[in-house]
């Protein structure tokens, strides 16, 4: 069953309106409405993910203590050290 649609009247920056029209013209979206709907859906999903991540971090910290800036810096250094380059291995010519 298709989700119920609701008509909205919105005002957006002219650059965003142009980007939506360009996406439709390029065949990247069926309509401005579908392009905007997808953008809203992506924002909802991202916000939900951030909220859940915050809750997971809070749960972790309640069990193991606050994650310190020093621990974050140490983890970043270890991640950089252990990273495997999978592209961009060619040296850039001057």
Give an overview of the whole structure.
The protein has 94 residues and is an all-alpha fold. It has one domain. 63% of the residues lie in helices and 0% in strands. It is built from 3 helices and no strands. It has helices at 14-25, 32-64, 69-82. The longest helix is centred in the middle third of the chain and has 33 residues, at 32-64. The model has no long low-confidence stretch (mean pLDDT 94).
Estimated helix fraction: 55-70%
Please compute the radius of gyration using only Cα atoms: 22 Å
Largest sheet: none
Number of separate strands:
0
**Beta content:** under 5%
In angstroms, what separates the terminal alpha carbons?
Answer: 58 Å
Low-confidence stretches: none
Task: Give me a quick take on this structure.
This protein has 94 residues and is mostly helical. It contains three helices and no strands.
Q: Topology, pairings included?
A:
Blueprint: H1 14-25, H2 32-64, H3 69-82
Supply the key terms.
single chain, 94 residues, mainly alpha
